[in-house]
Amino acid sequence: MTQNNLGNVYNNRIIGDKTENLEGGITAFTKALKVYTFENFPYEWAMIHNNLANIYFNRIRGNKADNLETAITSLKESLKIWTFDAFPYERSGVLSNLANAYNNRIKGDKAENLEQAIFYYQEALQVRTFEIFSQDWADIQHNLATAYLYRIRGDKAENLEQAISAYKEVLKVRNFDDAPYEWAMTQNNLGNVYFNRIRGDKADNLEMAILAYTEALKVRTFEAFPYEWAMTKHNLSGTYSDRIRGDKTENLENAISFSTEVLKVYTFEDFPENWAATQNTLAIVYIKRIRGERANNLENAIAALNLSLEVYTPMAFPINCLQTGRNLGNTANLIEDWETAIKGYNLAIKAVENIRLQALNPQRKQEILSEAMDVYHGIVQCYLNLNQKDRALEYVERSKTRYLVQLLTERDIYPKGNIPQTIITELDRLRRAIIGEEQRLAIQEQTRNQGEILTLDQQRQPILNDYTHLNQLKQELNQLIADEITPIDRAFSLTQKVESIPLSEIQSLIDQDTAILELYIAGDSIMAFVVTSQGLNVWQSSAEDREKLINFIKNYRDAYENNKTAWINNLNDYLNQLSEILQIDELLELIPKSCSRLILIPHWFLHIIPLHCLPLKNGQFLYQRFSNGVGYVPSCQLLKLVKLSQRDNFTRLFAIKNPTRKDLKPLLGANLEIERISQGFATEKTIIIGESEASEQTLENRRQELQASHCLHFSCHGKFDNESPRDSALMLADPDGNLGESANLTLAEVFEKFDLRECRLVTFSACESGIIESKADSISDEYVGLPSGFLFAGSSSVVSTLWTVDPLATTLFMTKFYYSLKRISIRDEGSIAIVLNHTQTWLRTLNSKKLARIKDSQKFQQLLDRVFENKRDRRKFQDLLEAAVKRQPYPFANPYYWTAFIATGV
């Protein structure tokens, strides 16, 4: 117990070097644990772990992130003994400390850490109530308010109001006379909330922040509390930098003065993290400064940011590094110092990638990337300014489809050596189960409280994801590797770093007759990168054209979602508008005339537009310029990975035909479509699952046959969920209407359950099956939609649709498409796109007379008699044909009928 007491003395010691005192405390508590063991002295063991955690929380030496992890581990040890029933007071203290650790945690997902902190604070408050433990209650309430101040989830404005309310409640207990130190701490934090406040008048809020900081400085003097004094002065500096009232010039000079004073206490040697924060704040003030030479001020800002980044490295402090690296990049941009700007943006990007690694589900990874997309835009532009076009393209690629690229990179990593097949099968199962659970958590993250008005009490509650099952699966996987794989292949690793793809490697993916056109919507322009075997050309639009593009897509979407008839009638005009905005004819001049094949890589909301059908000035469409077809890939890295899984065989068909749904009408042309498609495959190699049998359970029961298929065709209803893209689905059978949403085959389930490594082509004869998430706030271009799931499952090509398609046009299109497909070499790259483009021309130019001859032919009428068991459905289909024939001279000339179909992959 002497060592425990000694540890507490060191922890609370004022005299002597703070760093050494804390190290002395760690030594003392560590020695104490050798005597007070879990088995012999459980209570004391728990107490010492709690004390040890407090020292690690405050520790100056060592890695800050690692110190906090040690504190969290030690606190969780204490909780094994200090249960709620046996030791409620002690347990609540540990919970409060644990919350503090999560509040300040560097590792892990920041959003999740803050929710954990809120949860633990609220748990602690159930014991440490205002009535019984008012001082403890105030301490916890104060820290809870701090968690709300920095909270990421929930409504930001409301979180800040909750923080203000909580701090004001704390001040009823913490008053100037009885608890001056604690009162000043709360005043300081109240100032922080007012500085960040969204509601109310901004100028008033900043004055309230200054008032609170000034109050805090009545106690936090340089002489009595130098560290705390510096903290509040630092906050004042940031507030005066943004101050609206008063003389702007003087406010900025005051801000510089405050930061300069702070650096007398926050030195690099003693408080490196605080020193770095102060350098960053000082830099921001110099950027805004009015007095002095502008060039000198910006040089001072850059110098301060470089100093800050000596501490704020991508690994040690990724969130701070992102902010400071961004500031350095933006500042260097102002003086056209492109190399320094690149340094800042590059550090910020490394930090973003580290932050993403800590996120536990793909939705959070996507949000993190979206929030940092400006740094990618910045570095791309800087490299273009230096005429380093190849490096610019590398960073364009680095910002796209990160999650899917990672999944595909790791999908086919297998251990070497004589590993039993049963172990490989279990390895596959667990990996896919983990991906499926990650998708489920992503859906939960994206759909939580959507459109729901929450009460104040609900808004206060922590928003925690349940990672129990995910952690369980990961534990099972790690155990399998440790027990069954590592003894045979010690080098085996599930994860593999995804390297950026250089221009030379991109060029190796194409032949001399192929060009890649990669579009990129940056912060103030549209960019186009044209890659051929001969080199790289870049086109960049004006800021005005980018604005036109944003307005265009708003109008396009609004019409599609709210006035479908007008959208159909105006679709040709929409495509002409887009062609002008993107200056397609000018872009084509960057592509050698010898190139006969084009691979399109859209960006953001351009994924939902049939770019290959954009009209040209000569009256043709873009795809007609390329005799060997125009297809799509999500990124060059995806192209590389999909090429590795290219399939040559095309003899086994697995088709889903017209699943019976109580809530949906049957697809009129589905039976005819499948009948005609199946004629191109041998009967013994064709599996057709139709009507009530076309369920998810049937797919599960026939998993082996599904896995063996070369062509998987879905003729069914589909839907894209723009609010929750991972809930996008193909609508399978639910004849009685009992299954509801669970009858649907969702994107998340495809990721988890489908293995299509023999498949050459997946085709969706289903509405909205090719739409990709492209909301205004989803600029990370993660390519979330049904095609991504089937590419991950193993198919080398996916044919899908970009809107709610016409049933007759779709039936005719698919019939012709498969007829042509069986007459070419399917193993050739781009063959799917070639046939799809030719089919689009065929449907667009099919005239009324020819359609009438088809309709009236005896052979076709006999076919209709055979495939339509229901006479009413046959009559409806006949009516569709009659109506089409009357749309003279070309029934399907409107782009609505023929442009919806796209080919993605190789």
From TrEMBL:
Domain CHAT, first and last residues per copy: 574-905
Organism domain of life: Bacteria
Family matches, as InterPro entries: CHAT_dom (IPR024983), TPR-like_helical_dom_sf (IPR011990), TPR_rpt (IPR019734)
Keyword Signal: no
Keywords per UniProt: Repeat, TPR repeat
Record SUPFAM superfamilies: TPR-like
Protein name (database record): Similar to tr|Q8YY88|Q8YY88
Source species of the chain: Microcystis aeruginosa (strain PCC 7806)
